[in-house]
Amino acid sequence: MTIAAKAVIFDFDMTLADSSYAIHRCSNLLARRFGLREITREETLAGIGLPLEECWRQYWGDFRDEWTDYYRTEFRALEQAEIRLFPNTLSVLESLREAGIRTGVVSNRRFARRVVDMMELTHYMDVVVGLEDVTKAKPDPEALFKAIAALRVEAAESVYVGDTDIDMKTSVAAGTRGVGMTTGHFGEEGLTAAGAWRVCSDLIELPGLLGVK
Q1: Treating both helix axes as pointing N-terminal to C-terminal, what angle do 165-174 and 142-151 enclose, rounded to 10 degrees?
Q2: What pairs with residue 179 in β-bridges?
Q3: How many CB atoms lie within 10 A of CB 4?
Q4: Which phi and psi angles does 129 have, rounded to 5°?
Q5: E-assigned strand segments in the chain
Q6: Residue 178 and residue 80: Cα distance in Å, rounded?
Q7: How confident is the model over 73-95, as a mean pLDDT?
Q8: pTM of the predicted model, to two decimals?
Q9: d(CA 100, CA 212)
Q10: Three-class SS state of 211
Q11: What distance in Å separates the CA atoms of residue 124 and residue 13, rounded to the nearest whole number?
């Protein structure tokens, strides 16, 4: 079954790009600096998609502003420089844009525009909403509502693509169709249980779901 969508909105980390290795490396550089336990890549994946405070509390049972300040000063540029787009990200975005579908990013990443700019995706996106733009993080639908309004479409005409249960719960709360990606920590079962309309293992499958050739 395909649907006609006027807008497709994406999560960023582990949906459009693999940031897991970069975040894993930089998180452990932070851990060494402050005498914290080093984390595994699996733990990194489990934290991606959460706001930074919740993510670090999950890793280390604590959160301190000095960690944030040090991370952003010393490691943010390194982290962003090591993020890599998934192989089919650009071709899928180009296909959607050529079909007249509006596109955007909604992320729990603070200053999401910076990483979208750095990955040279800005010209593909009609809207970018990050944590700095809202009062509540996903799974609250505030950010997705904001993006939908900016795109001038209805929720029912929109698809939200993400790799976590948080993304799928956000989609359900906003009244959009959620497409779960198994490129992160969650498999098909977990994404479906969280409300995914469809689950894909590669972005290349997305245009077909929307009737785009």
Answers
A1: 60
A2: 161, 198
A3: 9
A4: -125, 120
A5: 7-10, 17-18, 84-85, 102-106, 127-129, 158-162, 177-181, 198-200
A6: 27
A7: 95
A8: 0.95
A9: 10
A10: coil
A11: 16
Report the percentage of the chain scoring pLDDT > 70. Answer: 99
User: Using an 8 Å Cβ cutoff, are 176 and 160 in contact?
Assistant: yes
Q: pLDDT at residue 143 above 90?
A: yes
Closest CA to 91 of 2, 16, 198, 11: 16
**Structure-token pair, residue 39:** 């984390």
List all residues 6 or more positions away from 46 whose beta carbon is below 8 Å from its beta carbon.
Answer: 58, 185
Mean pLDDT of 48-71: 95
Place of tokens 């390194």: 78
Mapping DSSP to helix (H, G, I), strand (E, B) and coil, where does residue 197 land? coil
- Contact 128/112 with Cβ under 8 angstroms? yes
List the structure tokens of 58. Answer: 């999950």
Q: What single-letter amino acid sits at 91? A: S
Instruction: Please give the C-alpha separations between residue 158 and each of 45, 144, 161, 177, in angstroms, as whole numbers.
Output: 27, 10, 10, 7
Distance CA 212, CA 157 (A): 15
| 61 has a pLDDT exceeding 90 | yes
Nearest CA-CA partner of 125 in 145, 110, 107, 108: 107
